[in-house]
C-alpha cells in the first residue's frame, strides 16, 4: 500500500480509530451487573451445598480410613511396609496378599 503524503496517513489512522471505538461494547447497566453477580453467587452456593450434602462434612475430619474404589490398595502398601518390611530392616519384599503373591516395593 502506497501512501502519497502525510495527510492521507493521518486520515486513514483516524478512520481506523473510529472503527475500533465503534466495536467496543457498552458498559453493563446496573441491573445487568447485579443479575450477573446474583446468578454467579447462586450457582456457586448451590454447587457448594450439593457437594457438602454428598461428602458428609461431619465425617471429613474424623479419624477414619477412606474407602471406595481402589483406596484399599493405596492403604495396603504403607501398612505392609510398616508392619512387615521395616521391622526386618527391609525396603523390598514378597507379599502373598493377592493371588500367588507380588513383589512389594520392587520397581
Overall description:
The chain is mainly α and 107 residues long. It is built from four helices and two strands. The chain has a two-stranded antiparallel sheet. Strand 1 and strand 2 (102-104) form a beta hairpin.
What's the overall geometry?
elongated
Strand content: 5-15%
Distance between the amino and carboxyl termini: 66 Å
What structural class is derived from the secondary structure elements?
mainly alpha
User: How helix-rich are the residues, as a percent range?
Assistant: 55-70%
Q: Which value, in Å, is the CA radius of gyration?
A: 33 Å
- Report mean pLDDT, rounded to a whole number: 80
* Lateral arrangement of strands in the main beta sheet: 1-2
Low-confidence segments, given as residue ranges, are none
The major pleated sheet works out as: 2 strands, antiparallel
Q: How many strands?
A: 2
The number of domains is 2
Q: What is the H/E string? A: HHHHEE
Tally of alpha and pi helices = 4
Keywords:
107 residues; mainly alpha; two-stranded antiparallel ribbon; 6% strand
Short description:
By secondary structure, the protein is mainly alpha-helical. It is 59% helix and 6% strand.
In terms of topology, how is this protein built?
Blueprint: H1 6-23, H2 30-55, H3 57-60, H4 71-85, E1 93-95, E2 102-104
Amino acid at each position: 500500500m502506497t501512501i502519497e503524503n502525510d495527510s492521507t496517513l493521518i486520515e486513514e489512522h483516524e478512520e481506523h480509530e473510529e472503527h475500533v471505538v465503534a466495536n467496543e461494547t457498552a458498559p453493563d447497566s446496573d441491573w445487568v451487573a447485579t443479575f450477573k453477580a446474583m446468578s454467579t453467587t447462586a450457582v456457586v452456593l448451590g454447587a457448594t451445598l450439593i457437594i457438602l450434602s454428598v461428602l458428609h462434612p461431619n465425617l471429613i475430619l474424623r479419624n477414619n480410613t477412606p474407602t471406595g474404589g481402589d483406596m484399599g490398595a493405596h492403604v495396603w502398601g504403607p501398612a505392609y511396609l510398616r508392619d512387615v518390611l521395616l521391622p526386618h530392616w527391609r525396603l523390598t519384599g514378597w507379599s502373598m496378599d493377592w493371588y500367588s503373591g507380588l513383589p512389594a516395593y520392587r520397581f
